[in-house]
Design a protein that fits this description.
five-stranded parallel β-sheet; alpha/beta; five-stranded antiparallel β-sheet; about 35% strand; 7 helices; single chain
């Protein structure tokens, strides 16, 4: 599960990230000292799980949840045990952890989050690549069908059970495989250059030995895929 950590205390963010690192199924994408920074991030990225502190300056954890139209699963992390009843009024909250948090208690919370995620996958088959129509790619993210302009895509990267679709404007994290999305993209624009990367060849800025530069991303090119890339570039 891709997750983020929101806590105004730097030490707390480090501790939560360390607890996450001991769970193979968790991938911490970012951590934030306040809710506003997290909201900006979530406007352009999709996550499966949020570790959220309740007491933060200006914007409480509950205020933050109220701003989310389709909140992901949330595990509250707090030093205050007095809000547990209020917390579980929110369907998105799967557990309430009181600091200091032990690894054993943390692991139990993750089991709950994974169980809820599996239920969602089995019932709605969420967050998969759906279809293409003309220049548009439609993906199902957080139970919403999102339209992505295909020519704006410059990179598709595999990350475990997810793929990240990078465009000129936003990045999208989708529960799918690289193979499935490659089947939806036009061959004249896109090329798989590595087992984990598909690129828009028209977006290449520079190529050097076994890598290409697109935007600020340096993408590796496997030895077996390099001849096809060079052939494709000669046709541009």
């Amino acid at each position: 599960m891709n997750c983020i950590v929101i806590d105004d205390e730097a030490t707390a963010r480090i501790i939560i990230s360390q607890l996450c690192s001991n769970v193979p199924s968790l991938n911490v994408l970012e951590d934030f000292p306040n809710a506003m920074q997290a909201i900006k991030y979530l406007n352009q990225n999709v996550v499966d799980l949020i570790f959220l502190d309740i007491h933060m300056p200006d914007f409480t954890g509950f205020d933050f949840i109220e701003t989310l139209k389709n909140p992901p699963k949330i595990i509250l992390t707090t030093s205050d045990p007095n809000f547990a009843i209020q917390a579980f009024e929110y369907d998105c909250i799967v557990d309430y952890l009181v600091k200091p948090i032990t690894q054993a208690r943390f692991d139990k919370a993750i089991v709950k989050a994974e169980a809820k995620q599996n239920t969602v996958k089995n019932t709605v088959n969420a967050e998969k690549v759906e279809a293409t129509s003309g220049n548009d790619l439609y993906v199902n993210i957080d139970r919403r069908l999102i339209k992505i302009d295909i020519p704006s895509i410059y990179l598709v990267e595999a990350k475990g059970d997810y793929i990240q679709v990078k465009t000129e404007d936003k990045n999208y994290t989708v529960h799918s495989t690289l193979k499935k999305i490659v089947e939806k993209l036009p061959d004249d624009l896109f090329l798989k250059v590595h087992r984990s990367y598909v690129i828009n060849v028209k977006k290449i800025i520079d190529i050097e030995d076994n890598s290409v530069l697109i935007k600020k991303d340096v993408i590796p090119v496997s030895r077996s895929n390099r001849p096809e890339l060079m052939k494709r570039l000669n046709l541009l």
